[in-house]
Each structure stands twice: as structure tokens, then as C-alpha cells.
Amino acid sequence: MIALIHVSIALLSLVVTGFAYISPAKNKIYASYSLIAATLISGTVLAIVSHSHLLSVCTSGLLYLGIVGCGVFAAHRKMVAEASKTKNDL
Hints:
By secondary structure, the chain is mainly alpha-helical. The protein has three helices and no strands. The termini are far apart.
């Protein structure tokens, strides 16, 4: 059951991060941060409970964090660029 919750949270965080990049907003970026934290917590619990091999868990987790981290970083940069463009247009 926890595996399903973990995968659902991870997929939802990818979707929210994608929406945050398409249409950047602070609340979408904060939602991405929250979902990333929830994914890490549920993944840690899942790894402890299932006694899985740490190397495979860490590799998957780092890949996930790399993808979502780049997405959040790009969304934040895009949001700042749009805000400065709007400020310069005034």
C-alpha cells in the first residue's frame, strides 16, 4: 500500500513541476517542494519497511531528485525572468 502511495506522490510531483514550468507561480513551486519532501519521506519509510537494497533505492531517488530538481529550478528561473520583464515594461 505504501508503494502505491509513494509512486502516486512521485508522479503527482512530476505533473505539478511540469505545470509550474509551463505557468510559473509561487504556489505551484511550493507545492512541488512539498510533494518532493513527501516523496522522500515515503521513499525512506518504504526502504526501511521493505528492507530493500539501498544502492538501487538511492540510485532511483537521485534520478528522481535530479529530474524534479531541474524542473523546479527551471520553473523558478522562468518565474523570475517573467517578473523582471513585467517590472521593466512598467
